[in-house]
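Meet the record:
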Amino acid sequence: MDPALAREAFGPLGGLVEIGAVSEAGSTQPLNKVSVAAFVSRHRGELNQILDTVRAIGNFDAATMAVSESLGWFKDHEITSASLLMWSGCIDEYSAALDHPTAVRRMLRMGSDLQLVQLFHALVRIGAAHSMPTEGPSRRIESAITLAARLGGNQENNPAWNVFRMWRVKFLPSTLMPSSSTPPDEKARIRGYAHSLEALIENNP
């Protein structure tokens, strides 16, 4: 398994940790007072479950999984409005107004959606790299995305369903259309995951 696929999951997960730390502290809390380490300490169990899903569906070795810690996303580091802007896909223009609570809340909402969709796609790609049945990995993905949504401050009843729908629109057409450069066998596996995940998540309120 290509270790680069694991990194595709580690990046958005790091974004969700920053977003979650700010969300939990409240958008009026100064960003330089938000502690990533304290947030991770409170949510280490959920974070480990998500990472275990990455390891299990990708059959990654310990050295690959250790990269998630070495990147520094889960250790104390400064969170800035510029980093929230990056995680949110530049939903606002870079300016001094980014520190305003309204802008922070907007970046948190957009950033959570965007990084959840990126994480979802990474997990599907990791699963689809194997010619294995989709049912077991799909259940792990659904559980991991639900946990990740909670980390990112999403408290709705079935967050995985909205993430699935956003992922389906953002990624599937460019991956599955006849004009796509995706190899036919990979298309088949990703399509299989799309069908399996739809059936699982839609019926899991």
